[in-house]
């Protein structure tokens, strides 16, 4: 049950990415390149996702527990610390170089080609690397 | 701004939001892709099957769209492969160090009005804009 639910929810997420063209690096770079022919699409995607989530979370988090788990597992960290800011800056650097972030990378890989698969492989390597290197 | 596609952006963004809300309603967690993927790399019993199922959904989605539309959804890389690979490394490393990515901080965290996520999103957006500016206008990529 949990497997099926997770699959379907992942599918909806992916459909959102594909329909909004967020799996296309050229589209992402068109947004990030503010000095060129700027494409505000990403801002609308994030805005729509944010408003939907903001309203939905209000409804869901008022419930005593989630449908298929004993309790909500919300992030507990609140500090704006060095790892957060350095990590976010490195993430942004990579996002600008590749034009892809984790979700879109995985969806783009499904359509084939060397570049998205190379991106995903490098991303997984970067995740593993973070476990060994201390910043 | 002739590349601007607001309608499909709003529909797609809405679907991403619905997915994030359903994920919270069902699994009680924020739908942060980098966290879900990183968790799938370290197999903990009872934990990683649902993570792999979510990733499988993410992977199937473009094929699903391709099946029902006339053409393959475009995925165009304008940067060289080595830059994509280097970017991938930084994306994976930075997302884990910073505790989230575009989905976890940018959508879910901001929707919870988390100051941490707002700071992270502001930081990675700025870093990405500066990176693309330097790559395109200074280095000529």
Please characterize this protein's 3D structure.
- The complex is a heterodimer of chains A (135) and B (141).
- Chain A has 135 residues and is mainly α.
- In chain A, 67% of the residues lie in helices and 0% in strands.
- Chain A has six helices and no strands.
- The mean pLDDT of chain A is 96.
- With 141 residues, chain B is mainly alpha-helical.
- The model of chain B has no long low-confidence stretch (mean pLDDT 95).
- Chain B is globular.
- In chain B, α2 packs across α3 and α5 (102-111) packs across α6.
Quickly describe the structure:
The complex is a heterodimer of chains A (135) and B (141). Chain A is mainly α and 135 residues long.
Topology:
The complex is a heterodimer of chains A (135) and B (141).
Chain A: H1 2-19, H2 25-32, H3 41-60, H4 82-98, H5 102-110, H6 114-132
Helix pairs in contact in A: 5-6
Chain B: H1 6-27, H2 33-41, H3 48-68, H4 81-97, H5 102-111, H6 115-138
Helix pairs in contact in B: 2-3, 5-6
Number of helices, counting only DSSP H or I runs of 4 residues or more of chain A:
6
Percent helix of chain A? 55-70%
Cα-atom radius of gyration of chain B: 17 Å
> Mind summarizing the main beta sheet of chain B?
none
Number of beta-strand segments of chain A: 0
The end-to-end span of chain B amounts to 21 Å
Q: Span from first to last CA of chain A?
A: 40 Å
Outline the low-pLDDT stretches of chain B.
Answer: none
Structural class of chain B, please?
A: mainly alpha
> Order of helices and strands of chain A, N to C?
HHHHHH
Q: Count of DSSP E strands of chain B?
A: 0
- Cα-atom Rg of chain A, whole angstroms? 17 Å
Mean pLDDT of chain B: 95
Sequence stretches where pLDDT stays below 50 over 5 or more residues of chain A: none
Largest sheet of chain A: none
Look at the helices and sheets of chain A and give the structural class.
Answer: mainly alpha
Helix percentage of chain B? over 70%
Features:
heterodimer; A: 135 residues; mainly alpha; 6 helices; 67% helix; B: 141 residues; 73% helix
């Amino acid at each position: 049950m949990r497997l099926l639910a997770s699959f379907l929810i992942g599918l909806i997420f992916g459909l959102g990415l594909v329909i909004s063209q967020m799996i296309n690096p050229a589209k992402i770079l068109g947004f990030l390149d503010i000095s060129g022919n700027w494409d505000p699409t990403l801002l609308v995607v994030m805005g729509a996702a944010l408003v939907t989530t903001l309203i939905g979370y209000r409804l869901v988090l008022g419930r005593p527990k989630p449908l298929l788990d004993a309790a909500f597992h919300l992030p507990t960290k609140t500090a704006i610390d060095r790892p957060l800011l350095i990590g976010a800056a490195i993430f942004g650097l990579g996002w600008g170089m590749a034009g892809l972030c984790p979700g879109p990378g995985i969806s783009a890989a499904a359509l084939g080609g060397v570049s998205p698969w190379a991106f995903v492989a490098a991303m997984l390597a970067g995740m593993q690397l973070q476990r060994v290197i201390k910043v | 701004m002739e590349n601007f596609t607001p309608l499909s952006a709003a529909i797609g963004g809405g679907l991403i939001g619905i997915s994030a809300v359903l994920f919270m309603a069902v699994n009680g967690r924020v739908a942060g892709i980098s966290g879900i993927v990183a968790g799938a790399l370290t197999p903990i019993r009872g934990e990683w099957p649902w993570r792999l199922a979510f990733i499988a959904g993410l992977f199937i989605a473009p094929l699903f769209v391709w099946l029902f539309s006339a053409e393959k959804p475009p995925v165009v890389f304008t940067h060289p492969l080595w830059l994509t690979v280097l970017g991938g490394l930084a994306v994976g490393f930075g997302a884990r160090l910073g505790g989230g990515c575009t989905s976890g901080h940018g959508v879910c965290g901001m929707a919870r009005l988390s100051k941490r996520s707002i700071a992270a999103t502001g930081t990675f957006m700025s870093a990405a804009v500066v990176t693309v500016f330097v790559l395109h206008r200074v280095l000529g990529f």
